[in-house]
Amino acid sequence: MSASTKPIQLDSVSKAIVEQLQSDGRRSYAEIGKAVGLSEAAVRQRVQKLTDSGV
Q: Which of 1, 10, 40, 55 has the fewest Cβ atoms within 10 Å of its own Cβ atom?
């Protein structure tokens, strides 16, 4: 596999964030943070990394 088609490995927190966004894409970072146990800033950073990686 080339780097562009390599599967992306998500940890349990990233998976939980994706699940939160799938259930309600309009949830705030603060609400997601409460649900997954992270700060609003940490959720924002993870969502940006997920977006940048094509998730």
A: 1
